[in-house]
Amino acid sequence: MRAHSGELYRYAYWLSGDSALAQDLVQETFLRAWRSLDALRETVAAKAWLTTILRREHARLYERKPMPTTDLADLDISDTGPSPERTGEDAVMRAAIAKLNPNTENRWCCRCSADFPATRSRGSSASPRRPS
Q1: What would the pLDDT profile of 73-101 be if each residue is shown by its tens digit?
Q2: What is the 3-state secondary structure (H, E, C) of 62-126?
Q3: pTM given for the model
Q4: CA dist list (Å): 105 to 16, 27, 82, 101, 130
Q5: Is residue 105 packed enough to be buried (19+ CB in 10 Å), middle (13-18) or exposed (0-12)?
Q6: Which CATH class is domain 2-64?
Q7: What radius of gyration do the chain's Cα atoms show?
Q8: Alpha carbon of 24 to those of 11, 64, 69: distances in Å?
Q9: 35 neighbors 49 (Cβ within 8 angstroms)
């Protein structure tokens, strides 16, 4: 088992991010492994068996330890920034359409939606007609 202690420590440190906690996890892993040594059927599988015990020990930490929570009612989540529809190319296009008079706007929207797919064909590099 000592042959695997270095690898187990590195894995425990990767899981927990804390050196002291990683040492505790490895110690607890060896303790649990010692108590259930008769469950190990093949010695070649010891590394995988110990790794599984360590991973489960790490998970048990979070079963016992209450995670900090925040009440959403206490948070200020108001959004004062512009919405995505009001920024970028969408905003420029919406502003340009808003400046058009209603007849031109309707004609332009109908013409673009009707003409654009029809003017593009396979092998053709023709541009769609622009409204006049």
Answers
A1: 777 777 777 776 667 777 787 788 778 77
A2: HHHCCCCCCCHHHCCCCCCCCCHHHCHHHHHHHHHHHHCCHHHHHHHHHHHHHHHHHHCCCCCCC
A3: 0.47
A4: 60, 74, 25, 6, 13
A5: middle
A6: mainly alpha
A7: 32
A8: 12, 15, 26
A9: no
